[in-house]
What we know:
This protein is of the alpha/beta class.
Amino acid sequence: MSTPDxxxxxxxxxxxxxxPLALGAxxxxxxxxxxxxxxxxxxxxxxxLGNAAGDIYSRNSNPTVTVFEEKVRLLERAEAATxxxxxxxxISNTLFTLLRPGDRAVSVTDTYGxxxxxxxxxxxxxxxxxxxxxxxxxxxxxxxIAQGCKVVYLETPTNPTLKIIDLxxxxxxxxxxxATTIVDNTFATPINQLPISLGADLVVHSATKFLGGHDxxxxxxxxxxxxxxxxxxxxxxxxxxxxxxxxxxxLLRGLKTIELRVARQNATALSMARYLRAHxxxxxxxxxxxxxxxxxxxxxMQMTGFGGVLSFAxxxxxxxxxxxxxxxxxxxxxxxxxxxxxxxxxxxxxxHVECSVEERAKLGIPESLxxxxxxxxxxxxxxxxxxxxxxxx
Length: 393
C-alpha cells in the first residue's frame, strides 16, 4: 500500500500501516519516547546519517508520527509529507523555508486569520513583499502572479467566507513564472479535493480540524513534492515545531473514519445552507454547494463534495448574531471546526480573532457573520436548534 492503489476510504484506514507493527499490535502504538537506543555506535551512526532505517530523536522523527505522515501522503497523492505541532506551524514553517528577504509572494485576501497575520505583518517585517488579491478576482490574481513571484499561496474554500479559487487557473499562472504553489486544503480535506492532482506543488492542513475530527489533538501537515518537503522538514527539525507521538496517535485514530465523517458533514452542511437560505431571519448564506453561490461552477469542477462548513449573516447587527449564538443549545460555541461536534462562532472570536475590526473589514468579513461547522449529529436536531435560536434574532 505504499502507492495509492486504493480509494481514499481504504487508505484512511490502512494506508501507511503495511509494515509489521511492534509486538504484533493491530493498531499503531504510541512510541512515547524522546530518544531511541541502538546496540552499538556503528548502527546508531548509520541511522543518524540516513544510511539505515531508524529513529534517533523524536524532534526529528518518531515511528507513530511517521505512520501519520505516510497516511496523509497517500490520501493527498503526494511524494512526501512532514508533520508539525499545529496547522499554523505547518504554514509558517513552509513559508519561512521557501521565502527569503527580497522575495515576493502572492495570495488572496480571504485566508485564515493567522495566515493573514503572516502576510500582513511577519513576512513584511522580514523584507518579503506580499501582494494580496481580492479572492474573487481571478484575472487580478493571474496578473499579480505574472509580475513574478516565488510563492503563490491559495486557500479554497476560504475561511470563513467560503469563497472558491480556480486552482487549475492559478496553478497554470504560477507555473509560467516558476513559482511554488501552496494550497491550504483544510476546509476541503483530501476526501473532497486533491490540489496536487490539479498541479499544486504543496498542500497544507491544520490536522486539528477534519483530519483528526474529534477536537482532541492539535497538529499540522505538509504534503507534496519531495524536494520541497525535505527542505521544510529540515527547517522544522531545527525550529522544533514537531508533532508529538500522542497527538499523532489521536490524529491517526481520527483519520480512520474521515471518509464517513466528511460524507455526513457534506450532506448536513448542504441541507443546512438550503434551510438557512430560505429563512426570513437570515440575510445571506455562504456555501459553495448552493447553486446560487458565485463560485459554485468552479467548486463543482474541482471538488467532489463541498465541505462541512458554511457561514451566514443574520439580519440585524452584531448584537443579533450574538443573541443567536447564545441561544444555540446543541451547537457548541467554540473556536475550532471539522469536529464530530457541531461548532459555531463569529470570526471575531474564531478564525480572525487575531485581527482588528479594521483588518477584518479590509478582508471583507462582517462582524455579524456566523461560521457554522457541521458535526455528525442528526440534521433534524441541528435544524431545530438553529430554528429556535433564530427566533431570538
